[in-house]
Known about the structure:
Layout: H1 8-32, H2 38-43, E1 50-52, E2 58-63, E3 66-72, H3 78-89, E4 97-101, E5 106-110, E6 135-136, E7 143-145, E8 155-159, E9 162-167, E10 172-175, E11 181-184, E12 198-201, E13 215-221, H4 223-227, E14 246-247, E15 250-253, E16 265-268, H5 273-283, E17 306-308
Antiparallel strand pairs: 1-16, 2-3, 2-15, 3-13, 4-5, 4-14, 5-12, 6-10, 7-8, 8-9, 9-10, 11-12, 11-13, 16-17
Amino acid sequence: MAYRNIPQGIVLGFTVLLTVSAGAADKAVKELAPKPSVGDVLKASKPADWRPLDADNTLYLDLPAGRVIIELAPRFAPNHVRNIKALAREHYYDGLAILRSQDNFVVQWGDPHEDDDKVRKVKDAKQTLPAEFTVPVANDKQFVRMRDVDGFAPQIGHSGGFPVGRDPKAGQTWLTHCYGMVGVARGNESDSGGGTSLYVVTGQAPRQLDRNITVVGRVVSGMPLLSTLPRGPAPMGFYDKPELQVPITAVKVAADVPEAERAHLEVLRTESPTYQAVLDAQRNRGGPWNKVSPNYLDLCNAQIPVREQKL
């Protein structure tokens, strides 16, 4: 372009205007560029981004309507996980029942005769254990911190496929009460639970329970079988009539189930770059429907993908 007979100041201003306009155009193009969805990120994942469930730390909760699969977290509650597996292996849970479904809170199972002389006795397992509400920070080498803020913990993130909170000053880390997490029911005393009665979070994450109850794992498959159960009519969602209770067919450790009868699931590694991309996709969702991208993600909305393992 020739600038003959045009004052230099005007030429300079025009050049700056062109530069600014080009920069604004580039920015507009980037803003219009579609953001990858979680599905897009997972489609591009590699086999190494996924890990199979450890059969020795996986429980099958079999109900008349189907199977609920629970991944246990022995690094956070080793004694309780060991005890729960012992209870399963002595068939303690078989024939017990889901006793409670409280709206926007939890589903709980255990012995309907817990308070009378028909209560089921444990054999090799223990009835109660000391609480395992937290573990030392030094014991959790797999912690990957999220950059988002949280009202219940100074730091939040994931560790080996589980949502966790962390307090570096106190030197503690703990599993959090997100949707699908499994905890050990107890009385007022911290050491009054051992795994004979368990619950699953089925409502808005009750994070006020963090560090007040031992959390032992999370449901990785079958949540609809629990979350859609009729709400109990009695206080706290308890079923006040035996016919309302949902019978438990069996609870088994997956390692004790024949290979052909196991579910073959994989969990996305939360320490992988792919999972970080999943978090970013959840912070700022793309597509034509979304009009506002909050650039923020609540810990309990940071979903950990699970898929059928390709054999």
